[in-house]
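User: Here's a chain of 182 residues. Predict its fold as tokens.
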Amino acid sequence: MKTLILVLTKGPHRFRFGPKNWHDWIVQCRKAVKLQRQLPEAVVYVPSAVQTRGYPSELEYYRNELAKQGLTESIQLISGRKALILEPLHYETIGQIERGYQFADVLSAKLVMVSTLFHFPRVAYLCRGKGVMHKVAWGMPNAIEAMTDCALAVLFPLLDALGLGKRFQRWAITHRESGKHI
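Assistant: Prediction complete.
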């Protein structure tokens, strides 16, 4: 069975405590590569258009780290498909997840999401009832992102229940398009 491994990006340019190989986004890359090697015809997919002023794009960080793990865009599967697809689309979690569903449908693939520890509750909420496999990367987060993720784990379902989820998504996109991250 074909599998699409969706890597939900987490601000790799931001400071984290601890050794670099413990950083959550790097652990996330390792987990995605490990899954890709274990699952037949698995494609790792990273959609992100985030470009914070003064830093390389998120895709560049992820491309470089995945290459260190031995996964590049030039590697092909038996089917002839690329094993890694990086796409400069989507600024926030909801858009990344929606694109993951669309792309999995196009590939007729099972969707597996790889998120960081503090991102997990919101991602689980957004994927409820969809039959998605969800893997968590246990690593050191950026403190600000961890607090934001904890707050959004509680606030987003409330915003969604009040019909404000799409408005929040539009705000996040506009904010990120201006070159700001959080």
